[in-house]
Amino acid sequence: MMAAKVGDIIEFHEGKQGIVEKVNENSVIVDCTIMENFEKLEIPEKTVINHKRYTIVVEA
C-alpha cells in the first residue's frame, strides 16, 4: 500500500475528503475544510486517518 504525501487529497469515511497536512508512521493528519459541504457536516477541521482507511484521490 502506498502512503499519501503532504498535499495529496484523500477520500475516507463514506466519501469525505481532505488534504494531507502531515504524514505519520501509521496515519495522516487531514484538513477537511476543502469539502464544499464542510459546514453542514459539523465535523472537526482536522482529523487523523489510519493509512489503511483512505484512498488517494489527487496526488500533489
Structural class: mainly beta
Question: Which segments are poorly predicted (pLDDT under 50) over 5 or more consecutive residues?
Answer: none
Strand order of the largest sheet: 4-3-2-1-5
How many beta-strand runs? 5
- What is the helical fraction, as a range of percent? under 10%
Number of DSSP helical runs: 1
N-C termini distance: 17 Å
Largest sheet: 5 strands, antiparallel
Please tell me about this protein's structure.
With 60 residues, this protein is mainly β. A five-stranded antiparallel beta sheet has the order 4-3-2-1-5, with no helix packed on it. It has one helix and five strands; from the N terminus they run E-E-E-H-E-E. The two termini are 17 Å apart. The model has no long low-confidence stretch (mean pLDDT 95).
Q: Quick gist of this model?
A:
Helix content is 7%, strand content 45%. It is mainly β and 60 residues long.
Secondary structure elements and pairings:
Blueprint: E1 9-12, E2 16-23, E3 27-31, H1 38-41, E4 46-50, E5 54-58
Antiparallel strand pairs: 1-2, 1-5, 2-3, 3-4
List keywords for this structure.
mainly beta; 7% helix; single chain; 60 residues; 5 strands; globular; 1 helix; 5-stranded antiparallel β-sheet; 45% strand
